[in-house]
Amino acid sequence: MEDRIVNEKAIFVKTGNTIKRIQSRDILYVQCEGNVSQIHLLNGSELSCIRLLKFIEQDLAGTGFVRINHNCLANGAEVEEIRYINARKRQLVLSDGTVLDISYRKWKPVKAALLGKK
Asked: What one-character DSSP code corresponds to residue 97?
């Protein structure tokens, strides 16, 4: 996969009684259950915040993040490989070895974003 320069953004995340500033380049992926989002960072730490994934996705627009399924947003710059399991199942492998499922419905937009193909 070719290297791309993406726009750098910072997002502010409220965790407990603290608001933290996080650079988009430091985020590996964001996973959400209900309205609680878990932000997984490159350094291995995690932050929890009460915020819908669609709002985090809007904040990170234009920085190379890709919605890979209903509950997950991945940093395209950290994708190491794409695995084809079968016709309906594909996975992303991130730089830290994390494996995330790509939903069937999101495959075409993910492929277009990461591979530049339609």
From this structure: S
CA 60 vs CA 11, 48, 73, 84: distances in Å: 8, 17, 10, 27
CA distance 86 to 107: 12
* 98 and 41 Cβ atoms separated by less than 8 Å: no
3-state helix, strand, coil in the chain (%, to 5): 20, 50, 35
Its sign, for the CA torsion 68, 72, 34, 88, is positive
pLDDT tens, residue by residue, 14-45: 888 899 999 999 999 999 998 899 999 999 99
Q: How far apart are CA 43 and CA 118, in angstroms?
A: 33
Domains of the chain: 10-115 (2.40.50.1020)
**pTM attached to this predicted model:** 0.87
